[in-house]
Specification:
The complex is a heterodimer of chains A (457) and B (592). Chain A contains 13 helices and 21 strands. Chain A is an alpha/beta fold and 457 residues long. Classes of the chains: A alpha/beta (457), B alpha+beta (592).
Chain lengths: 457, 592
């Protein structure tokens, strides 16, 4: 029962409004046709008696109120999925844009997904070796985790993400069982090129699925881009039993698109004009990471966001941090000191780390060791502040040792090359080596037995 | 009487329908062909506004809304403990069986298992007069919980008939009460509307400590049975770990853990961990006293709003049996945001930061459902509420934190700086407070020691003193301070590292009895007194601060084995300083 409606009541921003529509269903997809224009896709976002508000993915430019034909599909947005998607590139609404033809699939998948039942989840415990010391040692990434990178404009978050993709797969013992799903939202062409080049160079391109919405693509499509990507990830992880790494960048552009639509709908805004439901909306993306009982696959998410004005309390990083299982925070001052990757370990955190490291996973000394490094490095910050006032020479002997520890920590531990892949043992041994700079009785966070076993003076 | 409305408006979880003249405010309804569960939140000239507890995607105008005639209620009876429910008390394991790994909509209102037979011991006799709240039967629900089956509030009368002890399901009638021409059928389970507090005989004063085994809480900012507490903190400051610690170790009889708009993996972690953990008092699995309510952040927002009420109603039900119940709500901010989201969709006039104007009164109403009470049946029970707050941007001046602060008795402020230094629990000792300290004076006297509170004050004073001194140290360095002030700094460090920091993952350190907390503080006090008097006698700090001794005291949390251990350390302190003072006295005499 497909009915065509021929008249729009109103077109404003990304929205169109139609009257006298019968039996429209909430969230259904509509097709909008106009002579001389490619057909567009829209989604019903509100139904009020016969009045229907539709959000148009490709924008409303060049639409007229009279010459339009709108067809209601009666279904939510669905995309076809099969194993053939590996190595392909799609746009934000799941249409192939690499010229290699349509995807033929047995089934269509609703891009909105459904919440995972907590009872059906499998608690993530298996760590992923990324070969990056700051991450492996101090904010360990766990398979099935959602761990975002909080970055700023001009910081090397893309390199870091690329390095993780490049190195994380090598440690995968199952070999060919991994895939990368890449969702680009409002990023620049050269950024996309960078990722494509890295994927090609490392020979993983045939295991990558890309959903690309670039900065000059319609903003509304940014809303569906991560949903298409995550639906593809769920298909690969839970139907094909693959370990999927999902990279979503840039979440800030996504949230701005959300705000744009919200304000066009004249909704009551909350902080900084972002809609009140942004937390729930972000959660509906981030919570799609995880593992399921009875399935061999996993979805690990690395969303990337740029903090406007480097402000971690801005709504986008703030709400993200409340949903994700930790965060990796990049620091501009470290980067300016020439340190790559400029990960500031103090505000960085991996919530799932505690259950994926230690005796059975990495090494017995790892938990205490990480704890001690955090505590020592945070002490370094205090002492540096003091040294700025009274000068380094005036510091006490112990404090001077901390200063030395801080310098070496940044130069030898945090800093590492784009192609440098450190094993977990190397990282842990380096941590001990750095701690040996400090007097032994400063190591209050480590079990004395472990100090005895591992500390070499 | 079947009553129908016709859907005319859909916007996310908010649906409006016409023809609802006969519906009631707060009535539970079935929405659309899929029979989604919803609740009437406003009525205006035949048009009802409904908040829907399931995903409304695919719902059409013209579909029906059917009334159920009763408000949103929960079923209270055996089978609650060890279970995990969604926001409207549907068991997630049943949803899993029915709908698979991902939660579908339209599975209807399923609740406690009606087929399971419970071993019921009947306590009342025929002809006996029972009033509301009286216990007429009991069931061993889990190894830790004896479930007392009570006459529901409102029902009373003479027992007309009653079954023999034996195996019954919650659907069967066990007894009939006769009160004049009224008859009441009593079953193992009763229903209760979630938004109405269950009645009590009277409230009683708060006077018992809720022992949590967490040093910074029990000693410095104690919680009380029947009290309320808020734990605010930005992301990554350890709210959830603190809540988990309280759920694991506090000495409540029943724990209700509400995961309200939080992470799915965290609920799974509780589900995997709790059955393995043993209650330190009884040795039974902790899960046997725990009920979980999980409405994760990606589950429908309206059910998130309801989950808090579902939790508190279950808590009150077990309180009525005479138990001390603690409910952890993680996080109340998500609940407040659910209110905001729905208010926004209703186009209500927003107050501060888009939150509805009734935010503060709703929060206050919720926290007021805590209390130490005398129940209708004469027993005493309590509900303690511990709510996590997730302030936007970690800024405590935002509306939810402020409104919560007014409603609670204890405020455990988590600190980002401490968390970054991995000082856990990251409870800031300067900005936290507990209004229960003086109310618990007697309890501490009877159960710990008569000087417990004065000792607490002395230690807090050292910490405050340290904070002031640190301002100076930040400017000119530590070396400039006189030695007596440097002793304060050193002792404050011992308190911070050796006492306030507590390792949630260390077998011994995770839980510490109040008596032991006291002994630890006594040792630190002795160290302070002796060190302080030593520097006053002119002995230089480098000698007064003996690395080995200080380290041993800092590490005592991992090594303590009982009273003798603490005595041993105290003796060691005395020996060291006696010796030190003697050497210096002699040195001075020799020089002189």
């Amino acid at each position: 029962m497909k009915v065509k409606y021929l008249r729009l009541e109103k077109a404003v921003g990304p929205l169109i409004v139609m009257d006298d529509v019968k039996n429209a269903s909430y969230d259904e997809i509509v097709e909008i046709e106009m002579p001389g224009e490619p057909s567009r896709m829209g989604k019903v976002v509100q139904v009020d008696h016969g009045r229907v508000i539709i959000q148009v993915y490709q924008g409303t430019a060049n639409l007229s109120l009279n010459k339009v034909a709108v067809t209601f599909s009666g279904k939510p947005m669905e995309i076809p999925l099969s194993r053939e998607i590996l190595g392909r590139v799609f746009n934000g609404v799941g249409k192939p844009i690499d010229g290699a033809g349509e995807i033929y699939a047995q089934r269509l998948y609703n891009i909105n997904g459904r919440p995972m039942n907590p009872v059906a989840r499998l608690y993530p415990r298996n760590y992923i070796q990324t070969g990056i010391s700051s991450i492996d040692g101090l904010t360990t990434l766990i398979r099935g985790q959602k761990l975002p990178i909080f970055s700023g404009d001009g910081l090397p978050h893309n390199q870091l993400a690329a390095q993780i993709v490049k190195q994380a797969r090598i440690s995968d013992d199952k070999g060919n069982n991994f895939a990368v799903v890449f969702a680009a939202m409002g990023i620049k062409h050269d950024e996309l090129d960078f990722f494509q080049r890295v994927f090609e160079e490392t020979g993983v391109m045939n295991r990558v699925v890309m959903f690309a919405n670039l900065a000059d693509d319609p903003a509304v499509e940014r809303i569906s881009t991560p949903r298409c990507a995550l639906t593809a990830a769920e298909y690969l992880a839970f139907e094909c039993d693959m370990h999927v790494l999902v990279i979503m960048t840039d979440m800030t552009s996504y949230c701005e698109a959300l705000r744009e639509i919200s304000s066009a709908r004249e909704e009551v805004p909350s902080r900084k004009g972002y809609p009140g439901y942004m937390y729930s909306d972000l959660a509906s993306l981030y919570e799609r990471a995880g593992m399921l009982k009875g399935s061999g696959g996993s979805i690990t998410q690395i969303p990337i966001l740029t903090m406007p004005n480097d402000d971690i309390t801005h709504p986008v990083p703030d709400l993200t941090g409340y949903i994700t299982e930790g965060q990796i925070v990049l620091s501009r001052s470290l980067y300016q000191m020439g340190i790559y990757p400029p990960i500031n370990v103090l505000p960085s955190l991996s919530r799932l780390m505690k259950d994926g490291i230690g005796k059975e996973y990495t090494r017995e000394d790892h938990p205490d060791l990480a704890n001690q490094i955090f505590s020592a490095y945070s002490r370094v910050q205090e002492i540096r502040a003091l040294a700025q006032v009274i000068g380094e020479d005036e510091l006490s002997e112990v404090d001077q040792k901390y200063m030395e520890f801080g310098r070496q920590f940044e130069e030898r531990f945090t800093k590492q090359g784009f192609d440098e892949n450190r094993s977990i043992e190397e990282t842990l041994d380096l941590m001990w080596e750095l701690l040996s700079i400090l007097p032994e009785d400063e190591l209050t966070r480590i079990d004395p037995a472990l100090v005895k076993k591992y500390l070499r003076k | 009487m079947a009553r129908y409305g016709k859907i005319v408006y859909i916007n996310g979880p908010v649906v409006k329908a016409e023809g609802m003249d006969d519906f009631l405010m707060r009535e539970m309804v079935m929405v659309g062909e899929k029979k989604l569960i919803g609740e009437v939140i406003s009525l205006e000239r035949g048009t009802g506004t409904i908040q829907v507890y399931e995903e409304t995607s695919g719902l059409r105008t013209g579909e029906r809304v059917t009334g159920t005639g009763k408000p949103l209620s929960v079923k209270l009876g055996p089978g609650i403990i060890t279970n995990i429910f969604d926001g409207i008390q549907r068991p997630l394991s049943k949803i899993y069986q029915a709908g698979g790994e991902f939660i579908p909509e339209g599975i209807g209102l399923i609740t406690l298992d009606e087929d399971k037979l419970w071993d019921v011991e009947i306590l009342a006799k025929e002809g006996e007069y029972l009033k509301s709240g009286d216990v007429f039967a009991q069931v061993q629900e889990t190894s830790l919980v004896l479930h007392k089956v009570m006459v529901p509030p409102g029902a009373k009368g003479r027992v007309k008939s009653i079954v023999q002890s034996g195996a019954y399901s919650i659907a069967e009638t066990l007894a009939v009460l006769e009160d004049g021409d009224k008859h009441y059928e009593l079953k193992l389970a009763q229903e209760w509307p979630v938004r109405t507090p269950r009645p009590v005989d009277r409230r009683m004063p708060i006077q018992k400590l809720l022992v949590t085994g967490q040093r910074v809480i029990d000693t410095f900012f104690p919680l009380a049975k029947g009290g309320t507490a808020a734990i605010p903190g930005g992301f990554g400051t350890g709210k959830t770990i603190t809540q988990h610690q309280l759920a694991k170790w506090s000495d409540a009889d029943i724990i209700v853990y509400v995961g309200c708009g939080e992470r799915g993996n965290e609920m799974t972690e509780v589900l995997e961990d709790f059955p393995k953990l043993k209650d330190p008092r009884t040795g039974h699995p902790l899960m046997d006293r725990t009920v979980l309510i999980a409405n994760t952040s990606n589950m429908p927002v309206a059910a998130r709003e309801a989950s808090i009420y579902t939790g508190i109603t279950i808590a009150e039900y077990y309180r009525d049996m005479g138990y001390n119940v603690a409910i952890m709500a993680d996080s109340t901010s998500r609940w407040a945001e659910a209110l905001r989201e729905i208010a926004g969709r209703l186009e209500e006039m927003p107050a501060e930061e888009g939150y509805p104007a009734y935010l503060a009164s709703r929060l206050a109403q919720f926290y007021e459902r805590a209390g130490y009470v005398k129940n209708l049946n004469g027993s005493e029970g309590s509900v303690t509420i511990i709510g996590a707050v997730s302030p936007a941007g970690g800024d405590f001046s935002e509306p939810v934190t402020q409104a919560t602060k007014r409603a609670v008795g204890a405020f455990l402020a988590l600190d980002r700086e401490l968390a970054h230094a991995r000082h856990f629990p990251s409870i800031n000792w300067l900005s936290s407070y507990s209004g229960y300290t003086t109310m618990l004076e007697e309890w501490f006297k009877d159960n710990v020691a008569s000087d417990m509170l004065s000792l607490r004050e002395k230690m807090l004073k050292i910490l405050h003193e340290e904070n002031k001194l640190m301002d100076i140290v930040k400017l000119v360095g530590e070396d400039v301070l006189p030695d007596d002030q440097r002793v304060t700094l050193e002792i404050a460090k011992v308190i911070k590292v050796g006492f306030l920091q507590q390792n949630a993952y260390h077998e011994k350190d995770a839980y510490v009895e109040p008596q032991e907390q006291y002994s630890m503080l006594k040792v630190i006090e002795k160290l302070y007194d002796r060190a302080f008097s030593a520097v006053k006698k002119g002995i230089p700090l480098s000698k007064v601060k003996d690395e080995g001794l200080f380290r041993e005291i800092i590490m005592m949390k991992y090594n303590a084995t009982g009273n003798e251990f603490f005595q041993g350390i105290e003796e060691k302190i005395d020996q060291y300083y006696d010796n030190l003072e003697r050497v210096y006295k002699e040195g001075a005499r020799n020089e002189g």
